[in-house]
Amino acid sequence: MNKIILIDADSFCYLGNNCEEVDQAYDKVDQAISNIIATSGSSHYTLFVEKPFNNNFRKKIVKSYKVGRANKELPKFYNEIKEYLIGSWNAYGLGGYESDDVLISYYKKCKEEYPFTEVVIASMDKDLKQYPIAMFDTYYQRFGQVYNITEEEANYNLWIQVIMGDSTDSISGIKGKGIKYAESVLKGSKNHFITTCRAYLDNYGSRWQKNFIKNYVQVKLLDNLNVKLDLSEVEFNQE
């Protein structure tokens, strides 16, 4: 076992938009996955998707979580592609959790089980950068670039997001504050957690804890899920 790549496959569910037939979408998915594995030179892989009709635990705690996406029409062949990823590529997911939670838990377990093997996450999702990981970028303009996120960078990325929130997921953060405010708050900080708490106190007064916990729960990925390792070995030609 030389190199493991863990592939965030949720974005592949959007590949059917310009396809006339679903088989064309499947071909695009196959090509995208094969390209990642071949370019990365990996020997083993696993794909991750959010399970269909997943009842994410964050939505039970914070009703507004991702509410902006609720009424949006799904891309063409979205559900068919997701089922294809699960049925044909053995894509992994756990009910009640996002694929990112499962992926980062799987990453940690791989590092524990195979300490002398390189483990890389293939994704374009910034949320994963709150952990010290090796990340293979799948965004087309940066495809194949690998970033090694340090502990310090991961810690900074987490608290920046807790402060500024994430509009795409309807996470408010500290209302009315954006990236420049978040950066100014953490600049020179020796303890990002305490500094972030103080920023919430300054902005919310006696209500700071409630707002802090609400945003932290939405932003922070779970990394301790009981995942079962099931790696697939690369068998196709990587020319």
Share of residues in helices: 40-55%
**Given the C-alpha coordinates, what overall shape results?**
globular
What is the average of the pLDDT values? 94
SSE sequence, one letter per element:
EHEHHHEEEHHHHE
Rounded to an integer, what's the Rg over CA atoms? 19 Å
Q: Which sequence of strands runs across the widest sheet?
A: 5-4-3-1-2-6
**Strand composition percent:** 5-15%
CATH topology of the largest domain: Rossmann fold
Please write the CATH class name of the largest domain. Answer: Alpha Beta
Biggest sheet features: 6 strands, mixed
Extended strand count: 6
CATH architecture of the largest domain: 3-Layer(aba) Sandwich
Helix count?
8
Indicate how many domains the architecture comprises: 2
Distance between the termini: 19 Å
Structure overview:
This protein is an alpha/beta fold. It has 2 domains: 3-150, 3-Layer(aba) Sandwich (Rossmann fold), CATH 3.40.50; 152-219, DNA polymerase, domain 1 (Orthogonal Bundle). Helices cover 41% and strands 11% of the residues. The protein contains 8 helices and 6 strands; from the N terminus they run βαβαααβββααααβ. It has helices spanning 22-40, 57-61, 78-89, 99-113, 151-164, 179-186, 192-204, 208-219; strands at 3-8, 44-48, 118-123, 134-137, 146-148, 232-233. A 6-stranded mixed β-sheet has the order 5-4-3-1-2-6, with helices on both faces. Helix 1 (22-40) links the parallel strand 1 and strand 2. Helix 5 (151-164) crosses helix 8 (208-219). The longest helix has 19 residues, at 22-40. The radius of gyration is 19 Å and the shape is globular. The mean pLDDT is 94.
